[in-house]
Design brief:
The chain is α+β, with helices and mostly antiparallel strands. The chain has helices at residues 6-22, 63-77, 101-106, 128-133, 152-166, 170-182, 229-239, 249-256, 323-334, 349-352, and strands spanning 27-34, 37-45, 58-59, 199-201, 208-210, 226-227, 260-261, 269-271, 276-280, 283-292, 295-302, 307-313, 356-360, 363-369, 375-379, 387-391, 397-399, 408-413, 419-424, 427-429. An eight-stranded antiparallel beta sheet has the order 2-1-12-11-10-9-8-7, with helices on both faces. An eight-stranded antiparallel beta sheet has the order 13-14-15-16-17-18-19-20, with no helix packed on it. Pfam families: Beta-lactamase (PF00144), DUF7586 (PF24491). Residues 19-323 form the Beta-lactamase-related domain.
Length: 451
């Protein structure tokens, strides 16, 4: 463990103690992750007469979805699944077969939030054949792709997609391909000792009611797994980019990209591909919340500085929304991360020649080399259409983010080899504003600039 300072630990523990006492949580386990390692663990309350430890199991609910999604993305990277595939390609004959894999992963399929029949979280599960047989036109609540509409049912179908491609059930695939390689050996479909018992806390009295627990069968991919603070800390590191070879870090970054938002233009919450997203305190966090009868859990990770936070509780409701972001704020206040030391990086003369000012018409941009060999082209004033570009084997540059993500930047030279201009998907950038010697679309007025 890379421990936090004693003063930081005290502040973190006090926030956890206040949460457990004021929210009346039977037991609460919390962890902070930094640089891929567990940096701090704290707990309050009791499980079977003792304080929860890093190896006490809790049910993690919908955090399960992110692990199922990771197997789906492995299938995509293997070429077995395309995110634009209709689900009927992988589950033939399904009544809602037109929705795509990407829409199911991002909760934009328009499917019903819950499965048909009794509330699946508190009743014994049904086989997948029965679940599919109960689907019909009413299963679609919205036009596919129209809006964010959280669908537990959608992840039940993704679990079946995984099972059909791997010739094993979804849980076995998750265990073999995700949990075991990441060392998450204490994450299981059903509880093992020591584990917390799930409770509902009476709203007007300090008494408990045990909640039921069962195998959700066809709906299990939506929220079946149990885990521990230590295992969930490893998962936070995975979401932050320490993928341990389970997925290419670029694929995890793709999962963290906002596919949809659920609260308008100035969004604070959204969804990627199997990962929930939130913005708080200047951070963009990825992870997932989890809720099942008797249990609450959440894990958030910030890949920009490789920090993560998580909690696990055995209560049906009651947790405040701000616990984890408060812990991040405490960490920032007590132990702000130091920037990495600057050091020079080599660059060949051909790349140095590209740096400096460029002009898109009258708008000034600057091209700068980045340490890892990429370049960035940013407006001199404001943010505008800023993007990073990666070198390609054919001499072009591929846009990585921003307005020009996926677009091609070409360096155009004159017959004598000197720089003429940059061609960025038909936009021409010149060394001077509207350089008449460059191939500016529409030409340049021969009279030039005038007063």
């Amino acid at each position: 463990m890379s421990p936090v300072l004693e003063s930081t630990a005290r502040a973190l523990l006090r926030r956890v103690a206040v949460e457990q006492a004021e929210s009346r949580i039977p037991s609460l386990a919390v962890a902070v992750v930094r640089d891929g390692r567990l940096a701090w663990f704290g707990s309050r309350g009791q499980v079977e007469g003792a304080a929860p430890t890093e190896t006490t199991q809790y049910r993690i609910g919908s955090i399960t979805k992110s692990m199922v999604a990771t197997v789906v993305m492995r299938l995509r990277d293997e070429g077995r699944v395309d995110l634009l595939d209709p689900i009927a390609k992988h589950i033939p004959g399904i009544p809602v077969g037109e929705v795509t894999v990407a829409q199911l992963l991002s909760h934009t399929s328009g499917l019903s939030a819950e499965s048909p029949g009794p509330w699946w979280e508190r009743t014994p599960g049904m086989p997948v054949e029965e679940l599919i047989g109960r689907l019909g036109p009413e299963t679609a609540r919205h036009r596919p792709g129209r809006r964010y509409h959280y669908s537990n049912l959608g992840f039940g179908l993704l679990g079946e997609l995984v099972a059909r491609h791997r010739d094993m059930n979804w849980a076995q695939a998750v265990q073999q391909e995700i949990l075991r390689p990441l060392g998450m050996d204490d994450t299981t479909p059903r509880p093992r000792a020591p584990h917390a018992t799930g409770y509902a806390v009476h709203p007007w009295a300090d008494v408990l009611l045990p909640e039921p627990e069962h195998d959700a069968v066809a709906m299990a991919p939506a929220g079946q797994l149990w885990s521990t603070p230590a295992d969930l800390a490893r998962w936070a590191a995975f979401v932050a980019g320490d993928t341990g070879g389970v997925l290419d870090p670029a694929t995890v970054a793709e999962m963290r990209e906002p596919a949809t938002v659920d609260d308008g233009d100035a969004w604070t919450g959204g969804y990627g591909l199997g990962l929930q997203l939130t913005r708080a305190g200047g951070r963009r966090l990825a992870g997932h919340t989890g809720s099942m009868p008797g249990f609450l859990a959440t894990v958030w990770a910030d890949p920009s500085d490789r920090v993560g936070v998580l909690f696990m509780a055995n209560s049906t409701s009651g947790m405040s929304r701000g616990l984890l972001t408060d812990l991040l704020a405490i960490l920032d206040e007590h132990e702000p991360r130091l920037p990495a030391e600057w050091e020079p990086a080599g660059a060949d003369a051909g790349l140095l020649e590209l740096t400096g000012p460029w002009y898109w018409g009258p708008s000034a941009y600057a091209l700068r080399l980045l340490p890892q060999g990429d370049v960035c082209l940013n407006p001199v004033v404001g943010t505008g259409r800023a993007s990073r570009f990666a070198a390609q084997d054919d001499g072009t540059w591929l846009g990585l983010d921003g307005y020009y993500a996926g677009e091609i930047l070409r360096v155009v030279r004159r017959a004598d080899g000197s720089l003429s201009h940059l061609d960025l998907n038909t936009f021409v950038f010149t060394r001077t504003p509207y350089d008449p010697a460059a191939e500016v679309p529409g030409g340049v007025d021969p009279g030039g600039w005038r007063g």
